[in-house]
Amino acid sequence: MSTALTDLCRHPIVQAPMAGGAARPELVAAVGEAGGLGFLAAGYKTADGMHEEIKRLRGMTTDRPFGVNLFMPQPPLVDRAAVEAYRERLAGESASYGSPLGEVSYGSPLDGVSYGSPSAAVDPYGGADDGYEAKLAVLREDPVPVVSFHFGCPSRAVFDALAEVGTYTVVTATTVAEAQAAEAAGADAVCVQGVEAGGHQGTHRDDPQADGTGAGLGLLALLGQVREAVRVPLIAAGGLMRGSQIAAVLAAGASMAQLGTAFLATPESGAHPLHKQALTSPLFTHTELTRAFSGRPARGLVNRFIKEHGHHAPAAYPAVHHLTSGLRKAAAAAGDAQGMALWAGQGHRMARELPAARLVDVLMAELQSARTALSGGTEGSAS
Amino acid sequence: MSTALTDLCRHPIVQAPMAGGAARPELVAAVGEAGGLGFLAAGYKTADGMHEEIKRLRGMTTDRPFGVNLFMPQPPLVDRAAVEAYRERLAGESASYGSPLGEVSYGSPLDGVSYGSPSAAVDPYGGADDGYEAKLAVLREDPVPVVSFHFGCPSRAVFDALAEVGTYTVVTATTVAEAQAAEAAGADAVCVQGVEAGGHQGTHRDDPQADGTGAGLGLLALLGQVREAVRVPLIAAGGLMRGSQIAAVLAAGASMAQLGTAFLATPESGAHPLHKQALTSPLFTHTELTRAFSGRPARGLVNRFIKEHGHHAPAAYPAVHHLTSGLRKAAAAAGDAQGMALWAGQGHRMARELPAARLVDVLMAELQSARTALSGGTEGSAS
Questions:
Q1: Does A247 contact B at CB distance below 8 Å?
Q2: What does the pLDDT average to over B255-280?
Q3: Partners of B190 in beta bridges
Q4: pTM recorded for the entire structure
Q5: How far does the CA of residue B300 sit from the closest CA of chain A (Å)?
Q6: Is B375 in CB contact (< 8 Å) with chain A?
Q7: If DSSP codes are grouped into helix, strand and coil, which group holds residue B306?
Q8: Cα–Cα distance between A41 and A130 in angstroms, integer?
Q9: What is the value of ipTM here, to two decimals?
Q10: pLDDT score for B62
Q11: What would the pLDDT profile of B334-372 be if each residue is shown by its tens digit?
Q12: CA A321 to chain centre
């Protein structure tokens, strides 16, 4: 490995790629200028849309490194009936928001005909493979400093191709086995995502059988195990909101800490104002993992939509995402947070409405205090 | 507050009280001699049984401090039908292990007639209140250095009475609100228990409505929030197995780290040999929270019993505990780990079969390394 993860930028702080608009170039640029590592989110975008954002970012930042996050293609949808049953269930939502439910592409993304399905024409996002190959082609032709992958692990050929153009690669893992698979395939680093994380869990294969209560691994327990199972550098993610928590994951073996919800609340984030507001609103007391909006487990503030539909949503990503996409936009347009996907990590109440660069500074100051306290043996603020 | 938490012992390491036999005096003595703080578990014992253990511990240790953990009385059982349905469900288990299902006390522990139920005579553990008042009486008459509480928070009068006899008090909390309630009632410290923890979650009020997927708070996310919400010292618990993880929770504001599963595997622990072995056995790949054995969410290695009955178990603690108590003993006697309650935290695979005192030494050495690495800016072993 030529580049160490921490050589990429000044501070051990990563701004999580948040697909759906939050991680826009303004945010990535601000984090980069402040010495952190920002990520653009290519998920749900076309390859061209992703490329436009990269160019826009380059226009507003200096030569600071940044990353682009890709969603991995998903296995073919097997349970069409479950999706159609969920569609029927959501008919009332469609009527009340005056928004039609989305078309679902039933073409298989893995059989090489992902664009051949009848509904591909109405799906601007490239169906179940999220335009993966097209995005990779762009990133090979016009390389970026870092590329990370969510929902799975690419083949060695992909890592080799990105290494050839000087791109540093990261794969998200939610288990020890996933981290080992990423290292074995050739990833330069692993992003260790605890169950506390907001938005989608990056689980490589979505398996409803693994949904047991409390089955998801907490960040610190997972990090400890992954640190002993792989040798590549680790980025720790999940519920981190303060510099003291960053110090914690560094002490436990991570090289960097990745924060999403903390940056979601900044003015540079493109999250909907209602989403930002909801993070600290007394209306929303806790988060859950739900398939209600996308078909894959994702953590969001518990609202009416999750309460009413969460238990009925099938394991059918990204079919359910496309199904509910219009509904969520309509809910946002109507100013109804109860129908939006309010992705948030377990630390959401600690969100601070600071400019992103200022947030990076504050986090670094907190990190330094925690480091000093720990080395001085001052164990806790009230001991 | 006269005594700081960290003045109680040399090292910031607490051995978790593990009810059911693991936290026997041999273990508590070994941890105390090594400079940690050991806990006896009074849960499921009679007041006399608890007192005998305290006296036995005093006979084998010097003047090292130790703690005793009490279960809080539970609200009256409301859904008798659900318990009886679960009893019917377990009839096959009863037949195959040749062990009758236990009697359940339906007396209300809170209406002052907890011993007045017809079945109290066959329940040696004092029914749903776990002999709480009797145990408190013993602890007031023959004080111990530390008393901690699980499953709820005592009244201020209890804290006052214990403070009067010089006992330091701790309450387990799984949410910010529970930590605040403990501080307000007069607890000297709060044990912050993440969802990663093995055995019973110390949730103050068991509410099946709060069972949403991924609803339990990860330790680091919870610790960060509690640290800002209360002023008392914090003990961090949940999935901790290495000194680097102890360093992590100290960095995040805890004064001490509490480890259960790590000590479960030591020779001094009274856990069943099959239970110890199961922690690192390839037969058991993961843990879940389940009501299958006790009626309250507790984390254990997923085995046949949890798979078959977990989803059907009612929220009826301790009724279900008494129902399945004989079954679990019979399974253990038959050498069948698939029918035992294999309590374990999410870090179970990292268990080390070291003597308890040696484990404390190793943890302290790891903690010191992590401290040095963090203050020197060596962020992670492979960066």
A1: yes
A2: 98
A3: B171, B234
A4: 0.94
A5: 10
A6: yes
A7: helix
A8: 12
A9: 0.93
A10: 72
A11: 999 999 999 999 999 999 999 999 999 999 999 999 999
A12: 15
CB-CB neighbours of A160 under 10 Å = 12
Which residues on chain B are in Cβ contact (under 8 Å) with A220? 194, 196, 218-220, 238-240, 245, 248-249
Q: Does A375 touch chain B (CB under 8 A)?
A: yes
Residue B193's DSSP bridge partners are B237
Strand-pair category, A234-237 with A199-200: unpaired
Task: Specify the DSSP element, H or E, that contains B58.
Answer: helix B47-60
Tokens of B107: 């007396």
pLDDT over threshold 60, residue A124: no
User: Is the Cβ–Cβ distance between A357 and A311 less than 8 Å?
Assistant: no
Q: What is the mean pLDDT of residues A152-161?
A: 98
At A273-322, the pLDDT tens digits run: 999 999 999 999 999 999 999 999 999 999 999 999 999 999 999 999 99
Span B57-68, mean pLDDT?
A: 91
Going by C-alpha positions, the residue among B256, B32, B249 that lies closest to residue A383 is B256
Cα–Cα distance measured from residue A90 to residue A101, given in angstroms and rounded to the nearest whole number: 8
Show which of residues 335-354 on chain B sit within 8 Å of chain A, judged by CB atoms. Answer: 345-347, 349-350
CB atoms inside a 10 Å sphere around CB B96: 14
Measured CA distances, A325 to A20, A308, B128 (Å): 10, 17, 49
Pair of tokens at residue B111: 């209406």
Phi, psi of B296 (to 5 degrees): -125, 150
* Total residue count of chain B as it appears in this document: 383
Comparing CA positions, the residue from A146, A125, A105, A102 lying closest to residue A47 is: A125
Note the pLDDT tens digit of each residue in B167-210: 999 999 999 999 999 999 999 999 999 999 999 999 999 998 88
The answer to whether the beta carbons of residues A34 and A3 sit under 8 Å apart is no
Whether the CB-CB separation of B41 and B48 falls below 8 Å is answered with: no
